[in-house]
Amino acid sequence: MFPPLCRRIKIQIRDSDKVNDVAIGTHFIDLRKVSNEGDKGFLPTFGPAWVNMYGSTRNYTLMDEHQELNEGLGEGVSFRARLLLGLAVEILDTTNPEINSSTEVQVEQASAVADNCSGKMEEFFLFGAFLEATMIDRKIGDKPINFEVTIGNYGNQVDGSSKPLLRRKKEGGDGDEEESELLQNSSDDEGGEDGELVSVSSSQPMKPLVTDRNYFHLPYLEKKPCIYIRSWWQDQRRRLYNANIMDKIGDKLEEGLNDVQEMIKTEKPHPERRLRGVLEELSSGCLRFLTLADKDQHHSSRTRLDRERLKSCMRELENMAQQATALRSQVKRNTMKDKLKLVQNFLQKLRFLADEPQHTIPDVFIWMMSNNKRIAYARIPSKDILYSIVDEEMGKDCAKVKTVFLKLPGKRGFGPAGWTVQAKMEIYLWLGLNKQRKDFLSGLPCGFEEKKVPRGQNLPSFPPISLLYTKKQVFQLRAHMYQARSLFAADSSGLSDPFARVFFISQSQCTEVLNETLCPTWDQLLVFDNVELYGEAHEMRDDPPIIVIEIYDQDTVGKADFMGRTFAKPVVKMSDEQYCPPRFPPQLEYYQIYRGNATAGDLLAAFELLQIGPGGKSDLPPIDGPTDMDRGPILPVPLGIRPVLSRYRVEILFWGLRDLKRVNLAQVDRPRVDIECAGKGVQSALIQNYKKNPNFSTLVKWFEVDLPENELLHPPLNIRVVDCRAFGRYTLVGSHTVSSLRKFIYRPPDKKAQQWSMAAKHLNGHLAMTSRAHRSRPTGEIVVNMEPEVPIKKMDTMVKLEANSDAVVKVDVTEEEKEKKKKKKKGGGGGGGGEEVEEEEPDESMLDWWSKYFASIETMKEQLRQQEAAAAEAEEKEELEIAEGSKAQAKNKDKDKSKAPKDDKKKKQQPGPELPEKKSKQKIDELKVYNKELEAEFDNFEDWLHTFNLLRGKIGDNDDNATEEERIVGRFKGSMCVYKVPLPDDITKEAGYDPTFGMFQGIPSNDPINVLVRVYIVRATDLHPADINGKADPYIAIKLGKTDIKDKENYISKQLNPVFGKSFDIEATFPMESMLTVAVYDWDLVGTDDLIGETKIDLENRFYSKHRATCGVSQTYSIHGYNTWRDPMKPSQILSKLCKEGKVDGPHFGPGGRVKVANRVFTGPTEIEDENGQKKPTDEHLALAVLRHWEDIPWAGCHLVPEHVETRPLLNPDKPGIEQGRLEMWVDMFPMDMPAPGPAIDISPRKPKKYELRVIVWNTDEVILEDDDYFTGEKSSDIFVRGWLKGQQEDKQDTDVHYHSLTGEGNFNWRYIFPFDYLMAEEKIVISKKESMFSWDETEYKIPARLTLQVWDADHFSADDFLGAIELDLNRFPRGAKTSKQCSLEMVTNEAELPMISIFKQKRVKGWWPFVARDENDELEITGKVEAELHLLTAEEAEKSPAGLARNEPDPLEKPNRPDTSFIWFLNPLKSIKYLICTRYKWLIIKIVLALLLLIMVALFLYSMPGYMVKKLLGA
User: Counting beta carbons within 10 angstroms of the beta carbon of residue 215, is it exposed (0 to 12), middle (13 to 18) or buried (19 or more)?
Assistant: First the structure.
């Protein structure tokens, strides 16, 4: 149902015509505004209410040029019609087939609505006064000009207007008196009968006077024309009032937010306090709305939408008030930016809610007419000038003098044509109920007489047709035009020739034109004499008229181009005030320049309006005459206002240009860079052949310029690149504006401050972070101890050194966390603590680069966790500060003091007990894993070489929307240094100071250099799927200059997290080939391979950086093993080089493992082991210790790049801004003129090792009995055991069946054999198999090594019954029990406390383990026990001593000794009879047999007895 596919409903009134119907007016209903899909929402509903339609002005020509306005495109410029609309939505019964199938629209007759349903008719009164009309465009011509004001059709002289039918109920009865009267063109100053006022809607025509070459003005002087209009509308003011309240809350919020952003921009203190204030205002404003809006609840003419909207607005604002209050307490210095975004959302919501969909009074239009033709207009929403007795509900411009700029109607007002002002008006408007009109003049400047039409002379409430001002004040305006910055480039050269034109009242003046600059410093004072303002003096002081400043670009031919406009209010001084601080002299301020809706620079100026008192101009503060006569009669900005200037020297380092794109299809061949700042500048040397060598031959040039002392007033510096073509022609390639010089300013260190800063540095705990320092030494040396042995002592020393520095605390935490981690890894100490330690000891030969990498990743995760914790802690601290801010500061300080030592004590104690554990664990050397690009960590490696993006020259107005990326046409590499001249002597007189390089001492040469680039790609994560199956087949492609490597054959099948583990060596020449592109492609069997994503690295900045990003410094120095030193230079050589380059004293290696660099002494180990375990003396460890703490070395120190892996986001140009995955990699660079580096480190993915696991199932015991015997009802089970390795379920193996076990005992002596590939370091089994029969190649899976054993009950005719199972993690499983009795459920449930073993270390294990299953209550119960033996062999060992499956050769197992009962009854019927019958009923059977024999004997006896008797008797 919702959201529907359509967002708005279009309603149009048309004029029926034989050819085609013409739209009269169009209105759109936005469904979001007339419905609410929330929990307490409502279906779309509307009215019945009037909607106003706006469009073009009525003109009676054949073609209407503004017809599209009537179609609803663009802003309507005139009232067209009103329509009474109602809208309701019902949800239909969708089961009815007729409804679903029908699509045609049904038109029904609507029932008549009551007359007053849309509100009671009221008479409204609109009054307006024109106080000024200036800046009228000269194009209009000098015919008389007048202004017409209309509201609806009232006041429209061309079309006339009618009064509505008013039904007046007379007291005598309800006879209807209908009056309808056509108001004629009513400027004939006449009134209706009985003093009823007749509307006057237009001013008298007046001939304009010339202001300057662009504009006219109307000479109203002291006589200000007025208009007034009566109109009749339904009284629905409540809607507008509610909208006004919300708008005012919104305006206040917007103003507050702008303040906050300004504070952040100019770095004023405590912007968060201002934001808290803004939120407080917001919540009180919202609560005020709730009290005000609730008033007219039971108004008869309120529609359902009114009621629902009111409810939802009240809910939203109440909610907003609560959120604002909650947010207020969360605003902190560090959460400022996020919270600002949230508050911006409030503003959008307020603006949305304030827009009322059901119109009431139409908007007011002001038209400028010349010669009775409509020229330009302004549209003023009626709610803005609506009067109310409640202040919050009043329109924001009601009864105020407002500056209005008129614009051209329709399409002509769009784009550059619409930027010129048609007219600037100062206008006063008041709209309200006629009966409330007694104080409609209250907001006008005082000191006027009303001039009325003869009719209304004696009626006090009759409105005037003009105001005659008797009070006149004379002022002098001084416009101090100092400078503009970041102007729009209007010429194709990428520069402009700007001048400014200042308008005030009816005067205008221009500054001089400055050629070829985007940052003109006019430094000019414009004086406007005899400015006459009407009204009371005190009003002028508080609300002076605005000044308009327009900036133009002077062209040699044709008219000046408009470049932007800004507005300002002057600071006013009355004649009786002193010209003294704090208000005078005024401060220079920045005014934002706008060009259309886009910003186009800033103006730095100050404006003061000085009243000329009775004593004439002599009383005004004097203007210092032109001091520099060469500028002719131009006055400079006076001293108190103009910034204090100093002489600065700007040194520019020209390094080179990169990636220049074509200009007008021609390649850039001979570029040059021009630098300009504050009208001065310098040009670089010409690059003779950009293709061959894009670097400059002369590195450093300089120019001197006068800049303000106040850094916020510094002008921007412009960098322009031009291409020098034949015949002395120049083409602009691109330009860049450095908006703030702040980061390039060099301040020579103050002698006194030096010692302080050094001491402060020590105190700050920079050292404490990483080392222990004894400050007891008299010589001022600082000892940094690098002993890795006893961590605890080291920390104690730190804590003593630094009582309450954050740094220390953090270090403590790290140690502690590491301990915890180690504990975790061991799976808990407990009983087996002793054996743990020896088991955990990693084998040196097993360690490889990956061990180091995985250990480092653990550390990185740990650090991230700590950072989060630290951030949370800081936030809590700040919350406390806020909460306690009101309390006495002193108390606070004490608290902090007492708190700090406690914390430290805690921290000291914690790591204590874990010390022995720590020592026993061998340390794996780690590298640094950055979860971001290396550039982000080291400030883009712009420590001395900066990269400036060059943007395309003149921006056409059509490609304003082009993204920054598209406009980049190349990059300029260089730097700048700005400092006051002259420099102190000690810098220039330093040894080795080269004046040609100025401040850029010791920079390397920029000649081309050959470099071996070694790129290591570790792995990619979270790649974007490229195939239909949601996977990808990634491979690596690397491009550097002309080298293009595609590692296509080594693609990794169906992986989104592939491990590449590859290194590539490329030879390159800087600067031509310095941009390295590493891309990940998706391999396709058919068609071209798709790019998944790529990352670009600027190698040149890394290569030349002081951070030494060529080859990362390892944690330790070793000459063999997995951590071999990679750099061709040893640490001691690197250290000597750094000391020499940084002019640092050292390194001095001393006895006892000490090295002194500058005033720091480092200690550390002095021996190294080679492969054979021989120890040799070496200084390398010491040198490395210094390198790892190079940032602590005074003056020259900076952080050196450690051995690392960086994580770079992969981006795809077709999907800008969306990360396509991340790539972990690093780059080493070695200059070819140095000794060659060793072979690349092997980071190829670990190859799994082949193993064979032999599992012998000996016996089972206490297996639960599942089957009942047919004959005897006895419980028994036919037991067999099944086993497999996880991931190889299809290769499961079963023992034979032990039939008919009556006690749960089973005997098997059965061997399983599981071959598998195993990655030792990751503890995973590797399986390669095809995903489906259609797969092209096998996919690799990594699975934990787990053995599953299950016990089953075999059934012949139904499925086998599962009885129980156990899963053993081959790396950590409980040791088997010695006997069946000792085997218990604890072994499964309580793993944490039992000693764990690993089959990979033990190799052979035998014991009893429990089988478990879940009972009906889902609880684990023991269902049997198994005696098994696990034997692990490598593939080679298995080959040497083979063994057969089951009980087969070789190495056969003997047959199990099973009881005779274990057999299958239907295969051995006799045996089963023997066992089933004989064993149990032996004696019974014997007795029965005996009894039978007896019976037979008796029977035979009885049978033969008579015969014998007869025989005997007869035969006798």
Answer: buried
CB 208 within 8 A of CB 352: no
Question: Could you identify the residue written with the tokens 């470099």?
Answer: 1011
Cα–Cα distance for residue pair 55/77, rounded to 1 Å: 6
Nearest to 635 by CA among 617, 622, 648: 622
Q: What is the CA radius of gyration of the chain?
A: 47
| Closest-CA residue to 409 (of 70, 155, 141) | 70
d(C-alpha 211, C-alpha 208), whole Å: 9
Contact 1298, 1306 (CB under 8 A): yes
Distance CA 644, CA 626 (A): 17
**pTM over 0.70, yes/no:** yes
Cβ contacts of 120 within 8 Å, gap of 6 or more = 234, 235, 301
**CB-based burial, 1323-1337: b 16+ in 10 Å, e otherwise:** bbbbbeeeeeeeeee
Contacts (Cβ under 8 Å, ≥6 apart) of 1106: 943, 944, 1198
Report the sign of the C-alpha dihedral through residues 1321, 1327, 1330, 1332, in that order: negative
pLDDT digits (tens, 9 = 90+) for 854-906: 889 988 888 889 988 988 888 787 777 766 654 544 444 444 444 443 444 33
Residue linked to tokens 């009669």:
633
How far apart are alpha carbons 1013 and 1272 in whole angstroms? 84
**What's the token pair of residue 638?**
């006076």
Dihedral, 231, 233, 235, 237 alpha carbons, nearest 10: -70
243 — phi, psi (to 5°)?
A: -60, -40
Instruction: Kindly report the average pLDDT of the chain as a whole number.
Output: 82
The 3-state DSSP class for residue 392 equals: helix
Closest CA to 551 of 499, 480, 607: 499
Residue whose pair of structure tokens reads 């409030």 in the numeric block: 346
Residue with tokens 């100093």: 646
Residues near 160 by Cβ (< 8 Å), separated by ≥ 6?
Answer: 153, 182, 183, 184, 185
Q: Could you tell me which residues come within 8 angstroms of residue 888 by beta carbon, excluding any fewer than 6 positions away?
A: none
Q: What is the pLDDT of residues 658-669, one digit of tens each?
A: 999 998 888 999
- The structure tokens listed for 87 are 């809208």
Give me the amino acid identity at 197.
Answer: L
Q: What single string gives the DSSP state of each residue in 600-631? A: EEEEEEEEEEEE--TTGGGGSPPPPPPS-GGG
Side chain identity at 1456, as an amino acid letter? P
* Residue 1056 bridge partners (DSSP): none
Q: What are 1279-1332's pLDDT values in tens digits?
A: 999 999 988 888 899 999 998 888 889 999 999 999 999 988 778 999 988 877
- Cα–Cα distance between 881 and 329 in angstroms, integer? 12
The answer to whether 415 touches 408, Cβ cutoff 8 Å, is no
Residue 400 near residue 131, CB atoms below 8 Å: no
Type of residue numbered 309? R
39, burial (CB in 10 Å: exposed 0-12, middle 13-18, buried 19+): exposed
Q: What pLDDT is attached to residue 811?
A: 31
Distance separating alpha carbons of residues 313 and 1011, to the nearest angstrom: 67
The overall longest dimension of the chain from CA atoms, in Å, is 193
Query: Can you give the three-state secondary structure of 455-486, one letter per residue?
Result: HHCCCCCCCCCEEEECCEEEEEEEEEEEEEEC
Which residues lie across from 549 on neighbouring strands? 502, 566
As a whole-number percent, the residues of the chain with pLDDT over 70 amount to 83
Cα angle 1297-1303-1305, degrees, rounded to a multiple of 5:
45
Distances (CA, A) of 47 to 79, 194, 310: 21, 38, 14
Nearest to 789 by CA among 776, 806, 805, 772: 772
The CA distance from 1481 to 1477, in Å, is: 6
Backbone angles phi, psi at 91, to 5 degrees: -90, 125
Cβ count near 801 (within 10 Å): 19
Cβ-based neighbour number of residue 836 at 10 Å = 21
